[in-house]
Amino acid sequence: MLKIETSCLRVLAAMFVVFSFALPATQAARADMYSTLTEDTCWVTTATTDEALKAKKYREAIAGYTKAIDWTAKTCGQTLAAKNVFAKEELKKSHLGRAIAATGQGDYDLAVRDIALLLDAHFEGLWKIRPHMRALFNNDSMAQPAPAVFLDWTLGVVNKAIERNPKTSVYRAARADIYEKREDFQEALAERNAQVEYAQNNEDKARAYYDRAFTRYRIGDKEGRLADLSSGIGFDPEPEARRYADRAALYKQFGRIDEAIADYTKAMSDETAYRYKDYLKARADLYREYGKLDAAAKDFEKLVALNAKNADYLHGLLLVRTQQGDARQAKRLRAQIDKLKPDYLDNPERACELATAGPAPTGPAIPPATLRDVWSMGEVAALAPIQHLIGKPNATIDKAWDVMSNLVRAEQKAAGEPPRGLAQIPKFDGSKSDQLKQTIGFIFRQAKVAEAALEKKYGKRAAAVFAVSNAGYLAATLNGMGVPNVNVQLGKMIAADAPASGLPCGVWADTVAKIEGKAKPAEITKTWDTGRKRAREVLADPAPKPEKKSEAAPEKPNADAKNAAAETKPAKSTGLRECDDQDIALLLEGADPNTMPPCDP
User: Fold this and answer.
1) For residues 199, 204, 210 and 215, what is the CA-based torsion angle, rounded to 10 degrees?
2) pLDDT tens-digit map of 176-212
3) How far, CA to CA in Å, does 177 sit from each of 162, 190, 211, 546?
4) What phi-psi label fits residue 591: left (phi over 0), alpha (psi between -120 and 50 degrees) or beta?
5) Whole-angstrom Cα distance, residue 355 to residue 46?
6) Which CATH superfamily, name and number, covers 264-355?
7) Are 488 and 515 a contacting pair, CB within 8 Å?
8) What fold characterizes domain 2-237?
9) Distance between CA 261 and CA 281 in Å, rounded?
10) By mean pLDDT, which of 42-56, 91-105, 133-147 is the weakest?
11) DSSP symbols for 44-57
């Protein structure tokens, strides 16, 4: 009985609230309705304020929308200041209405600050599907649902604010946001530079650097993004976990593994955080990948304790125990996974990964960019001599051979050996069979020389990546030519070097299986082509390519905006630089050697 009476009283109270605010208006926004019946029905409607806006009573409209915004923050606990994408639509509508009214009254500062909040909340998506919000403009030209209509209007307002006060960081941030949404990334970067320059306090500076880091991400500038993330963290008194996690991912890409692990550790400071387990797994994978198996085991054990039914966590721990040679624990974990997901370990790549699990690569971490270049060198070492064999030498590939020879020569010299480099590709003579034998023998010998130099320069893993790439490419090419004579030898070479390469089994295991199964040459070629594609995906640069290209070079981290124009001019060459391994990758991707920056091989 008490329950029913309480419920009735709450309904009556809510009806009183609605009735009270529905009385005829005698002052600004009196008929706007507010309801707090339950948490789910905490809402505001601004009908009277909307009419004041359409009647161009801007002062009344600003007062009404401000009241609605403040009431929502106090009563419902929602604001757009926290980048709340899921905030109530009426709250977003109130900010839009106030921005329109402020613009009409010439208060561009208030208008831009509301616009900035709407941009952060991705309001342009709501613009497409809510005609009643577009109707606030009371203008046919603004009734179109295309987001570009909204963005063009916001840019006009922001431009007027900047004309009056160009050194206001929030204005430049808003204009950068608009350019990013329009995918004008170079324009956005210029605005981010100004945002950084004009930021007044530590909070604004941290925000500016974080914002510019995101813009650099959009244009593929990883170095600049890392520098800006670090600057933002430096100014931020309480960096969010995701800031450390973002920087950790970049550190990993650059091979700075200890720093990546340290940042993932900082990101895990709050064990109740939503992504805590993601960060813990990322750290566990890093530990395992780089041979810190005891630490990896500890992290994976914690993950399993948090969720014992997650097959990925159990699999990670299984790999660690296998690498540690703990057969008893590995058997127990296999049984757990089989019971949880019977087909999980039947996945070919997981099965291969377990079958080849051994001691993790030792030595310094190697950046993915270096491994990409090393992979390209393996292909060059096979391709260049074959091009000469078939009587079609290629100037681009020959130049890549010379670049690789230069690297080998430098490593030989550093080791106190005669700096011979790679041998010049000879003219193969005799019968076709003799020429083929000479070519294959030449490739084997030179590949071993290059492999030894790469191991000295980068470590065992790089040498293994080179060896897998070279043998796989040679196998595919020879089989494509209908010459499977050395398949068995090449298959053994791939299988021997692949585990130390750290490459996924999907890159090489199927090719080895085809060779061992004496598959037809065409099948072997096709299988390696698939593995080669997978390798390039694995070693690919994770940063997205810019949507719109610019001739401007990336600006230096923390450069002053006033120097931006000068810094975007291409640097003039002061002489021939020494070619390096990155030139090989460019050449293999089809770059014209005549248009590349000159270098001395």
Assistant:
1) -50
2) 999 999 999 999 999 999 999 999 999 999 999 999 9
3) 14, 12, 9, 16
4) beta
5) 66
6) Tetratricopeptide repeat domain (1.25.40.10)
7) yes
8) 1.25.40
9) 11
10) 42-56
11) EE-HHHHHHHHTT-
